Records
---
Amino acid sequence: MSNPLRVLPGSTIGILGGGQLGRMMAMAAREMGYRIRVLDPDAGCASRYVVDEQKTARFDDVEAAVDLASRCDVVTLEIESVSTSVLEELAKTLPVRPGAAALHVIQDRIRQREFLQTAGLPVGDFRTAFSASELHEALTALGGQCFVKAASGGYDGRAQFRTELASDAMAAWSALVGPAAKDGRLLVEKAVRIDQEISVLVARSASGEVAVYPPALNHHIERILAWSTIPAPISASLAAQAEEIARQCVQGLALEGLLCVELFVERGHLLVNELAPRPHNSYHASSIACQTSQFEQGVRAICNLPLGSTEATRPAAIANLLGELWLAGPPRFDYALELPGVRLHLYGKNEARRGRKMGHISASADTAEGATELVKQALARLTSPA
Ligand SMILES: Nc1ncnc2c1ncn2[C@@H]1O[C@H](COP(=O)(O)OP(=O)(O)OP(=O)(O)O)[C@@H](O)[C@H]1O
Ligand SMILES: [Mg+2]
């Protein structure tokens, strides 16, 4: 019997967002025989050369999104700053996965925290603040050492302010309440003494099938992901707890598509940091570590195909290539690729800027530690050939 929720290969997928995540999703979709149309405000976005159509428009341009969707069979997103009114409008005529309800919760850090807390999932101490004096009170209550985050609009550690003392309230308020947090809604988190950072990717299809990946181990430098390894070399019990949290999150949100749950490990206990309703940087290694890459899994989930196996067959790691690597001329990819098992992934971005994710290096090895070591060695070779 045909399944009305199913979008078969040969159909067209619309992606809101044409950054590297959209690009890699488009490449996986194309391999499976789909056509892809992308909407992005930047005409030179990373997806432009790998899609059938790239429409240049803002993420709150309902008319442009409706026009693009008129040539699609299903619509998804690769960035959470897409306006929910766009998703609501599109959902009148075609499946939109994930939908407006899940995005509404996730795209706002305060609503996201409240969802996690209500679901009984572990989160660190936090307060909300809607004025400078509330921020001062929150910092005082939490002990001064905090991460103050704009409720919406941040990524890669942007729209955040690290405080040491309650008296930093005014500086944090002026830094964040402006373009980053126009409405002055802030989430104030007590700084967690992080032992490890991990993430868990979970896919849920429109018919409710759920597949959870083994956790990834993530290392951040200056709040940007530097490298990531699958499977995380952590205890089986911690991995099982993290996977159960991810399952509860995706089911609690009834999210269709991919959800990545970022977690902190603090003295053996898990705390959820944040959620992302899309492919995630920490699962780029899934293409070589797992039976099914995150991008193929995302396509299967939004098209309501059977989900692929998430089994990790060989440890693998990635290291991000940030724009600063290009400062002294083109990185020496040729030297990095001399290392056996090392692969290069560039996103086709036309301008290298400090902190901008330009690509990544991946490698597999017999152990998670070995794979991590290999990508670090490859990274070092880019700027100082061995
Ligand atoms: N409460 C906290 N305690 C300790 N470290 C934190 C806290 N919040 C954030 N960090 C650090 O900053 C990093 C980035 O924070 P967060 O994930 O909130 O930001 P983001 O801008 O959404 O990042 P991304 O979109 O790249 O995941 C975390 O991975 C962690 O290393
Ligand atoms: Mg994060």
---
Amino acid sequence: MTKPSYKDFDATELFCPKCRRAVPVRKRLLLVLSEGDKYDYSCVYCGTSVGDKLVKENINSKILIR
Ligand SMILES: [Zn+2]
């Protein structure tokens, strides 16, 4: 019933299409959405965005109406 909680992968390296290799990335808060915070990962060398991630807020921090 319980999935193993999806560990927040702190991506250390992602593939950059421009550098054509796995590169260290910079994490940047892009958007704050109602369902979570959106982070953007960009290549430290050329700044190309290589991925993004939606970090969902802890459900306990939300007000739940039952
Ligand atoms: Zn790059």
---
Amino acid sequence: MLVEYKNVSVRYGCTDILRDISFTIEPGVSVGIVGRSGSGKSTLARLLFRAMDPDSGAVHINGIPLSHYQKNTVLRHIGAILQRSDMISGNARENIMFATHKEDLDNVPDSSIWNILDALTPSLRERLNGHGLDTLVGKHGLQLSDGQQQLICIARALVKNPEFLIVDEATASLDAETEMMVQQGIDTALSRGRSAMVIAHRLSTQRNCDRIIVLKKVSECEPEEPQIEMICNSPREAYELSPTYRRLAQLQGFRP
Ligand SMILES: Nc1ncnc2c1ncn2[C@@H]1O[C@H](COP(=O)(O)OP(=O)(O)O)[C@@H](O)[C@H]1O
Ligand SMILES: [Mg+2]
């Protein structure tokens, strides 16, 4: 999937959030987005799965503006792992298949779901012991921990076998121990060489990204200054060239 942001601008009220943003993500390339809180990272991601549309400019997929596609067509090929995991009432299988297109549902045997879950964590097989994927989870069933819920949501994104994966602060609401477990799941999800946009507070999440885009807050840019501070070809290059990236990395004790 070829993704192109072309002169994209987004405003909330009279505040510029994204200003004339252009970049390309070629098929198979994973891009890490780095920037301070409020710089517009999540907005970039929301545009791609059409939770919103830009005020001007356009996002193109395979050369065609997103607005020319049906929303379902786009969502079929994009998996999103976001900060808040939203479990539905129902069993584990229903929770995992929730985002899969109707026509694709029959093509996913339980064995494929287990393959995904086992690669993410051994703990879910233990937890679902007995009724397996028929185990009721969520509000009216077996209570899963926050981390296990988030892993179910990662499986939900992966079971579609999406061409493009979006990860946006997927561990931000978890405690440190749980974060490590979920982080391993995300590393697994990202290790398959598919296109991705990775937004992560913890820069180590992006260590295998092919490209790093450093985004500034519009309010911190000069009128003619581009909002994208830098596009780098590796985290190491970002560390060497981008003051913003290096400062964040040093705060985290991360050295790519
Ligand atoms: N629905 C909204 N209405 C008004 N302002 C919003 C809305 N969503 C986000 N914002 C503002 O837009 C800015 C950028 O948000 P966001 O893309 O979430 O940044 P980031 O993910 O980099 O922290 C923030 O200042 C945020 O307060
Ligand atoms: Mg965000």
